[in-house]
Amino acid sequence: MTKIEEKIIRILLVLLILLSLYFSYNIWLDPSGKEVSETPESTMVADKTPASDIFLPMDLISHQNGELFWVRGENLVSIFQEKLNHAKFGDLRVLVEGNEQDYLKELNRKNAFELLYEGNYLLSEYIKTFDLELNTGSSEMSHFPFRRVLVDYDGGVILFANDQKNQIYEATISMNYNELLKKLKEKDVHFQKVSINHDVLKNRYYIDEPITMKKYSYILASQPYTNFRDAFFTHPGDVTTNEETKDLIYTGDNNETMTIEEVSGSLRYRGTVERDSDKSSNIYNQSFPYVSRLGGVFSGIRYFNTSGEHTVIYRTFIEGFPVFSELSKGKVEVSATNISGTETNITVETSVDTIQVPIPADAEVTLPPTSEVVDSLINYGADLKKVDSIVVGYSWTSLNVKQVVDLMPTWFVHYDGKWLPYEELLNRLSEEGSEG
After folding, report:
1. Domain limits of the chain?
2. In terms of pLDDT, which residue wins out, 342 or 404?
3. For 34-40, what is the mean pLDDT?
4. Which of 406-429 are b and which e, b meaning 16 or more Cβ less than 10 Å from the residue's Cβ?
5. pLDDT at residue 32 above 50?
6. Rounded to whole angstroms, how far apart are CA atoms 120 and 147?
7. For all residues of the chain together, what is the average pLDDT?
8. Which fold has domain 3-50+222-354?
9. How far lies 338's CA from each of 273, 290, 342, in Å?
């Protein structure tokens, strides 16, 4: 592409953004910048995202004759999960209970596939979400938190594994593996070698080769506030607004409030939900409705992990990778407390800014293998006890063009309770070292 063509594309892009902003302004906002629409139902919010999309596992690992591969391809995780949904299962039993050596040994299957979450998910919710015909047999097994699902082709068994507790539950499984094996042989499927049982993050897979990923740019849109009002409030038609303060405040029944910061676009909702006596309540099914009703607002929103016992974090995913940003952009964080009581207290934190339209780009970024990231952390003096996880994701970067966002591939390290871009963490460690 010539420089003239690039300039033409940029000019057209700016015109498109200005046109989009003009229509958004006239449809959604009054001259003071405050929301005026009082439509009881929002067409955007009416488009709910199903649980099977939101709680889809994040990664696919293939065991091939004893070798391990991280597998990347369009909708591959969805395809493997869908096939698993129609399998037949035997009774669930305890296979490993707390022994780390036995745990790693059982995960070392010769021919198998794994579906991985970043954070734990409850077995009862997984069964309900994907409509599996699997009988847990007991309340303890039903409430088992797991991070990985492993299906052993040779042994005809399925394993649910918890990395923190070194626990595995096992059941027999009957399903057609041939279609999945054929899918792995298609041209657009990419394999990268991985390994496990390292000194740092022993139960996590290391990607052993450099990773090449596309860089993306997106048009940024500030969603109309009524979308969030209609998604969160019990009776959105009865909500009142206070426009006398700098930030916009919505107030509804049952002490429900929603505050939107004018400058940053950060949003916080607080409310309560009555407990369903016929339903086992947990942070996943209590937080899910608030995220599901944002289906038309957030594209690609999925469960990422939990923070403590009461908070679930959902993130925007691009091409199967989570997006990280400041000020909760592209993220929905839902906290649920007093779950066992008659009413659960709900807090939702997110942002009205969302990415909408992708801008074509051919740029690629190559990331180092996991071992190089870990070595750099060691060399910069990181406290390895504070490293809980390392994942590949996209960093949300605002450009000079206000309504355009760059999504840059990078490693993210969960260090001392926070997710930080790999290079930012190294800079912090370097500053701490120079100060010491």
Report:
1. 3-50+222-354, 57-209, 358-435
2. 404
3. 39
4. bbbbbbbbbbeeebbbbeebbeeb
5. no
6. 5
7. 88
8. TATA-Binding Protein (3.30.310)
9. 10, 17, 8
